[in-house]
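INFO  loader      accepted 1 record
INFO  loader      residues=285
INFO  predictor   begin
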Amino acid sequence: MYMPGIVYRLGRVGCVMGMAMALGQAAFAAGDDPVAATVNGEPITRTEILLALEIVPPNYRNLPPEQLFPLIREQLIDIKLLAAKGAEAGLADDPRIVVRRDFYVLRLTYDYYAASIVAGIMTDDFLQESYQRFLENFPDSEERKISHILVAKQEEAEHVVAVLAGGADFAESARQYSVGPSAPQGGELGFLRREQMVPEFAEVAFALDDGEISAPVKTQFGWHVIRVAERHTLEPPSFAETEQRLRVEITDRLVSEAAKEARETAEIEYFELDEEFFAGATLKP
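INFO  predictor   done
INFO  writer      dumping tokens
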């Protein structure tokens, strides 16, 4: 089965620290690069197929290799054939290609060097230590399940309090009286932390016992009658839930620190980005 366009926009360079880098390095490390096809005597290798995974549309990447690799091979055959025609036409020295080639070499060199910085530090032990520091700094935060009835005037809020004191159902009263967006849900706002509410509202809400209904409370939004249903303390996420975020944060920090250190001994000169600069800010396709 041949699907035209499965490999597209050959100029795109993916993040080398991603899937293609890992697969490509595995092929190089093995010292074995089997040939999948030849085009006028020029081989298409497994490494080229692995590198082409960077530019395969996401909806194809879940295909098993025995289905995906033949599709990529067909596209690489077309690419090699037409690239050879382009080279014969002198495109290898085309300024549009040269400038992109130089930039991609720059970016790849950066990616591999950045990956080497991270690989030397981000061990399993280092990740576990980082997770422990995350746990130590995880805030003790309580959430409360809060409902409210919002009205415009104090006397309306006092009337609502009297109605509730007479035994009226809070949710039904919210649907009847509240002018807030939560009225159709019976005034329910869900679980909220103190910092998610305006101070006047939070002070009262966090002083209530479960099931208790407040006196009227004024905020910038109007007058509220508040009820707290239940509360719980937030539990920190597990290592598995946090690992990917930790890896990203550590990678960003290590690479930023390396760049900062390099800047300290570099000669950097800035030039003004004036109107003339922006007037020519269109890259030829």
